[in-house]
Amino acid sequence: MFTYDLTSSDPRTRQIAEVRLRIADTYQAHPDFADAELWSFLQSCRGRVRLAAAAALEALAANRARLAARVSRGSVSDDLTAAGVQLRELAAQYRREEDEEAGQVVLEATVSPSWDEFTAAPRPPRGRP
């Protein structure tokens, strides 16, 4: 199944669309991934869109590497080996962006003393009754 709706009120559909946008998988007639595959990437990346996109790009790069070849015919040539390298570079960029953003997280904690009343009860005797 293919969905691509960045304005969806359904968080799952919107996250899948955000991953599709980042990996340029927006052409419904010939998608690279099904929704279930992208959702699997999102789940394994704890819902982080950039990391899911990086994982999807790495999967595409692995697939392209399997099929990579240099083709030439007369004066026309095409180097399909570069596609995998470019996909891996973009995946690495997404991972760096995610790491940079995670490094800028500001944690704030407020600690205030709390006084709870304490009552003591006599301790039961030890040993057998």
Write up this protein.
Helix 3 (49-67) packs antiparallel against helix 4. Helices cover 50% and strands 6% of the residues. It starts with 10 loop residues before the first helix and ends in a 26-residue tail after the last helix. It is built from four helices and two strands. It has helices at residues 11-23, 35-44, 49-67, 81-103; strands at residues 70-73, 76-79. The model has no long low-confidence stretch (mean pLDDT 83). It is mainly alpha-helical and 129 residues long. It has a domain at 11-99. The chain has a two-stranded antiparallel ribbon.
Total number of beta strands: 2
Distance between the termini: 70 Å
Largest sheet: 2 strands, antiparallel
Strand content: 5-15%
Mean of pLDDT: 83
- Write the element-wise H/E pattern from the N-terminal end onward: HHHEEH
| Low-confidence regions | none
- Supply the number of helical segments: 4
Structural class: mainly alpha
Q: Give the CA-based shape.
A: elongated
How are the strands of the biggest sheet laid out side by side?
1-2
What is the percent of helical residues? 40-55%
Gyration radius, in Å: 26 Å
